[in-house]
Design brief:
The complex is a heterotrimer of chains A (415), B (264) and C (309). Chain A has 415 residues and is mostly helical. Chain A is built from 18 helices and no strands. The chains are: A mainly alpha (415), B alpha/beta (264), C mainly alpha (309).
Chain lengths: 415, 264, 309
């Protein structure tokens, strides 16, 4: 056990920096930004879950690209009125205004014309972004010689951030998170089933607007840290990653918030350790790493788990079909069926059933007979609905129910 | 020995000749998730037969058709057409999908859709000849839609859309016709028109298989039924297979509702 | 303006802009109808990691390796989206959002980490392109178009874009029928034995080729705009696929020409001294065209004339 922590041998410079960054020892600004990024990540993960569950994840892409003209316009307006032009709150207000307009355009194109939402999203994001670039070149010529630095909003940049900016971000992150917590219930219902929500007397339109408004707020707050091109990742990736772990909305929202917060925290801290580690991309890549891990190993919907389940299920189906064929004396055509049955010792190499095979085949046939009776009897409708053609009936029904079935079967039950 | 409760026509124990049928399915299981949509289905469809696939909602009727055509991938099972692998016989098979399966907002007109049925003879670049156009127009004529040839497909009523799909299948000049709910949501005139076209096809010795919903019209339209509820309940001529016990087995408690629907 | 000014300074960027716009708009029609419009968005984002990797591998900023790198990145992107969508059972939009943002982030990080200060390779260039700088100094007037010596000095982007356009047009014409059929009715297309998945992949590859070549000349923002805006506007002008594609070409050309002219001369007319971004202006014009089509296009709404019997 080393008496200093972290141990001295770790103390290559970058490790030390990373440790200090993760423990928030890199100065007030870096600390505030890291906290702000974490809060933002939590809020973005949770909000993004509602967008994702409502199958509208990429709306956020239109929202974020539509901020660019607002940033440039706000700069111009502030300069025209004699201001600095680089005041963060002013630029953020500008970005909020044009992204709201972009959102309205997506909605108008989707509802008023024959275009589908994805086309509307693509049109709005590219046109607003293109117009924003036109305005940026105007700003550049207005500002001849002096860097306006608006380009930093594309990819985010926390280098040289002012104390005031850091406060704005931390405050903004907190406010958005509070709003998400407040609105989580109506947003869950609307994202899952808007028609039910409408039937239950909820104001679906207003809730959807709130969802979009939150996504917009997250975009705006995140502009300085993550940048407008990548902020959409913070809304989408944690939510998708969380979905692999749970089938329950509440859990997915919580997990997505946790993943988003972790990405924001680790990403911002990491990037504070070296100048060539831009904050936005690092945050996104941390989130993506969490996503990859979830995709592979999550037990609920991860690929490995699904693969194992599928293989097991396929084998079950083949063996059941093979047993039924044995019991009724039909040929088995599928090579895979024969292979699986041989491996389990149900048939011999020449295709003839072993003793175990015969016993199990008889059982399968009995099950099938019982099943036929059960299915045609309205009294057993409930059990019939749950039957999956594979589980032995005696694990589904009570002994009494089985006896009743066998009575109905008559002499065949004995076979 | 075959399962007692299945009305057997001897398909299960028959010799290899049944595999020469236009469509033979053996041991077909398809699953979208952790529960089979169809389980261990055997089925045989012969020339000059017109078969209704019937069963309750969610019984796997459409899935059976799609798996037979290779649109969905089965978990196990063999499918053959005229004794050959299905993929090699596509030119002889026509498919009429559910109307809702396509985007009717697609920018094209009726005649273009029907000509899609002749893709195999048109190929990539060969010119559209007059006889191609003639076949397409004849097909439209047979379903009573010739005057709509230049209409945009989005402007058609549901019944007219269904007739266009049938015309496309006719333009394929196939020997086996598979139809997925051809009578769903169509008007009475369309239903009549479609039935008479299908019966003509049967009279020409073609094989017709249709997923069907309305038990009341089964005896009028079809000569065979295939009852399905995930597994095969019964298959055979009306007199043998379209019986109360079989229907009870297929529909369970829902039979009363199904028949009430039929009576209306 | 005289030929001696127009030909060297404006002709090459105009032609390149027009070719890029058409090359993206044509496959864009099919992407639009397949509800895959945002694939163009995804592809143009992942071009950046592609070119950065190509630069890191070859050590030079040269067109062909970078185009190959970008093409590979586009294919990796599409493959990843498809894998995540299928294996993870994630809706396509979200799968896209996960993949292209992560790949773009990786590209930016690589760029920052590698020493590219000596070469002209940065994110802004990737996004905005630099259409205005593609000038033809060897030209002295219209007659230079017939002068082999002068033609040799033509910006190479022009030839690449021209070849790409011809390739995209040829592929579209050859595969018109299967493309149309499988876009309209995928299930039916499968039953007549069309390789539906392969056709879908081919379309995406064609789009990727167009995107990569156009990106090299004009930046990714035009690429996204041209994939979506001209076809979307065209859809509202007609109910025939053939006419829709022609309309989209017309709109693409109009956007390119008008956008270029407005960017170059618009500010002068307004009394400003500096031109604005041509790429941005072309995207803006295409948006204005779309807005006009959405407001007045004869087939702008889903339900046209009701059927009469």
């Amino acid at each position: 056990m080393a008496d200093v922590w972290p141990p001295r041998k770790w103390a290559r410079r970058s490790d030390l920096m990373l440790f200090e960054a993760l423990t928030l020892q890199l100065g007030y600004n870096a600390t505030l930004v890291t906290m702000g990024a974490m809060l933002l990540g939590i809020a973005a993960g949770a909000t993004g879950t509602f967008l994702f569950l409502g199958k509208r994840a990429l709306v956020s892409d239109a929202i974020s690209h539509a901020t660019l003209p607002g940033v440039a316009l706000a700069f111009m307006v502030m300069v025209l009125f004699g201001g600095d032009g680089r005041s963060l709150p002013g630029l953020l207000i500008g970005s909020a205004i044009t992204s709201a307009i972009g959102l309205l355009c997506v909605s108008a194109l989707t509802h008023r014309t024959r275009l589908s939402e994805d086309a509307a999203i693509g049109a709005v994001l590219s046109v607003f972004f293109g117009f924003g670039i036109v305005l940026l070149t105007v700003v550049q010529s207005m500002n001849a010689g002096r860097q306006a630095g608006l380009e930093s909003f594309l990819l985010g940049s926390t280098a040289g951030m002012l104390w005031n900016d850091a406060v704005v971000i931390a405050l903004g992150g907190t406010l958005v998170l509070l709003a998400v917590l407040l609105l989580r219930r109506p947003m869950t219902i609307v994202a899952f089933d808007p028609e039910f929500a409408a039937g239950a007397g909820m104001n679906v339109r207003r809730t959807e607007l709130a969802m979009m408004g939150l996504a917009m707020a997250i975009t705006v707050v995140g502009l300085k840290i993550v940048g407008l091109i990548l902020i959409v990742a913070l809304l989408i990736i944690p939510a998708v990653a969380a979905r692999f772990w749970s089938h329950r909305v509440g859990h997915v929202v919580l997990l997505a918030g946790a993943f988003g917060g972790l990405s924001g925290y680790v990403g911002a801290a990491l990037s504070a350790t070296a100048p060539a580690l831009p904050t936005g991309p690092i945050i996104v890549l941390v989130a993506f790493a969490i996503f990859l891990l979830s995709l592979l190993v999550a037990p609920a919907r991860g690929i490995l788990a699904a693969l194992i389940r599928h293989r097991r299920f396929q084998a079950q189906v083949h063996i059941r079909q093979g047993l039924l064929a044995l019991a009724t004396g039909q040929p088995i055509y599928e090579p895979l069926t024969i292979r699986l049955m041989r491996r389990r010792g149900l048939v011999r190499a020449d295709g003839v059933a072993t003793e175990t095979g015969q016993a199990q085949a008889a059982r399968a046939l009995l099950d099938e007979h019982r099943w036929q009776v059960l299915r045609s009897d309205p009294a057993h409708e409930e059990a019939a609905a749950h039957y999956d053609w594979l589980t032995p009936l005696d694990t589904v029904l009570t002994p009494d129910q089985l006896r009743a079935l066998d009575d109905a079967l008559g002499p065949r039950a004995a076979t | 020995m075959s399962l007692d409760l299945i009305t057997s026509e001897g398909h299960r124990v028959g010799g290899e000749t049944e595999f020469d049928a236009p469509l033979a399915i053996r041991g077909l299981t398809v699953s979208y998730g952790e529960k089979p949509a169809v389980f261990s289905i055997d089925a045989t469809f012969q020339p000059g037969e017109m078969t209704a696939i019937i069963g309750p909602n969610g019984a796997g009727k459409s899935t059976l058709l799609k798996a037979a055509l290779g649109i969905v991938k089965p978990l196990s099972g063999l499918i053959s057409a005229w004794g050959q692998p299905m993929a090699s016989q596509r030119a002889r098979i026509a498919y009429v999908p559910q109307r809702a399966s396509v985007d009717w907002d697609f920018p094209t007109r009726v005649l273009d859709v029907v000509m899609m049925g002749q893709y195999r003879s048109l190929g990539l670049l060969s010119r559209v000849r007059n006889d191609h156009r003639q076949i397409a127009m004849d097909s439209l004529e047979r379903v009573g839609m010739a005057q709509f040839a230049d209409r945009q497909i989005g402007q058609l009523s549901g019944g007219q859309q269904q007739r266009v799909f049938l015309a496309r299948a006719l333009a394929q000049r196939a020997d086996l016709y598979l139809l997925d709910e051809p009578f769903a949501g169509v008007d009475a005139a369309t239903e009549k028109a479609i039935v008479s076209v299908l019966q003509e096809l049967r009279a020409q010795g073609k094989t017709v298989v249709a997923v069907h919903h309305d038990l009341a019209t089964v005896p009028d339209y079809f000569d065979r039924v295939f009852l399905i509820n995930t597994t095969r309940i019964a298959e055979g001529a009306l007199a043998e297979a379209f019986t109360q016990p079989n229907l009870q087995a297929a529909y369970g408690g829902r039979l009363a509702t199904a028949q009430m629907g039929a009576a209306i | 303006m005289t030929g001696s000014e127009f030909v060297p300074l404006s002709l090459p960027p105009l032609v390149i802009g027009i070719c890029a716009a058409i090359a993206c708009a044509v496959p864009g029609n099919f992407l639009l109808l397949r509800k895959q419009a945002l694939i163009g968005d995804a592809i143009s984002h992942v071009v950046l990691p592609g070119i950065v990797l190509a630069f890191l591998v070859t050590g030079v900023v040269s067109a062909w390796p970078m185009m190959i790198g970008a093409g590979v990145a586009a294919l990796v992107c599409v493959g990843l989206i498809e894998t995540i969508r299928r294996l993870g059972r994630i809706e396509p939009g979200a799968a896209m959002g996960v993949v292209f943002t992560a790949m773009f982030a990786g590209g930016v990080l690589l760029l920052e980490q590698s020493d590219t200060s000596s070469v002209h390779l940065d994110v802004e260039h990737a996004l905005f392109g630099n259409l205005e700088s593609l000038i033809w100094l060897d030209a002295t007037g219209w007659h230079s178009l017939l002068d082999p010596a002068a033609l040799a000095g033509m910006p190479p982007e022009l030839w690449r874009m021209l070849i790409t356009l011809l390739a995209v047009l040829a592929m579209t014409m050859v595969f018109w029928r299967p493309l149309k059929l499988s876009t309209f009715d995928e299930g039916f297309a499968r039953t007549i034995g069309l390789p539906v998945n392969l056709i879908g992949l081919g379309l995406v590859i064609a789009a990727a080729i167009a995107a990569v070549a156009a990106f090299d000349a004009v930046g990714s923002i035009i690429v996204i705009a041209m994939f979506i805006c001209p076809p979307a506007a065209a859809r509202m002008m007609t109910n025939s696929l053939e006419a829709q594609v022609l309309w989209s070409v017309a709109f693409a050309v109009l956007s390119a020409v008008l956008g270029y002219v407005l960017a170059g001369y618009g500010p002068l007319w307004l009394g400003f001294e500096n031109a604005v971004s041509a790429a941005g202006m072309i995207a803006t014009v295409s948006g204005v065209i779309l807005a006009i089509a959405a407001a007045f296009g004869p087939f702008r709404t889903r339900h046209g004339v009701p059927a009469e019997i």
